[in-house]
Amino acid sequence: MPPYFVSFRTEIRMEENLPPFTRIEDPGTIELLRKAVGVLLPSNVSPWVYRSITQHAKNWFPRLEARFNFQGKTRQVHLFHRMGVRHPDSLVFKAPLRLQDYLNEHGSPWGYPIVLKGDLGGGGETVFAIYGQEDVPKHLLNLPQDKPLLIQKWVEHGGKDLRVVIYGDQAVSYFRVGGGQFYNNICRGGKLDHGGWPELQQKGVSAVRSFCGRAGIDIAGFDLMFPDEGEPVFIEVNFHFGRKGLGGLKEHQRYVLRAIRSWRDHLMTTRLSQPSTG
Q1: For the ranges 156-165, 171-180, 198-207, the one whose mean pLDDT is highest
Q2: Could you tell me if 185 and 203 lie in one domain?
């Protein structure tokens, strides 16, 4: 049988095509996955389905282990530490009450201001600037009382941060400029600058490419800051990210499609370059 790919995405056809909700345990499906050069995953896949598919496949796109294992800001602190990249000093707490008790007893280890972050939430909705201990209680009320959270040492970002979006072997980068405010998010009034500070963009893209290669990440948006001449500071990984800086949903879809084609071409080229065992 000639080499083939399997697609679980109805809108992207390959040699073999399966509905997103195919029963993976079927012997015929298992055999199809095992012999495929690569498998294109469903656009929405649960951790359980992901494991069911990937335990049989040789190659698949996208890789989602990091997304499932390090979802949330508190877990990302551990990911940054594991990857050995520069990131803000952080303290993680199991619940808001634990954080409040710690600050009451010890105060901030870095003085003030500091940054308070809930575990989940986008657009800065669970991220708060804390300028003194008296600011803490009111912001804790806006966070789930049974979920983890963290505080971080303040990073002087100069009114901007860099978003780097990875699509396989492609990278799209742009600065979000907040005009000197704490928030640079576009939904909070930040402005897009695709051409500004090109040397910093190149530096940030290079750092993110290296990170993704080692962490096994194919699609994600990274937020970086540049407080000094050193390495960029990794602030956050966004496995679900906004599309405005990319040109909208259609452009995002085009980037995804290009990444899929590049992944497929790479696997076929690698396969053709390998010596035959027949």
Answers
A1: 198-207
A2: yes
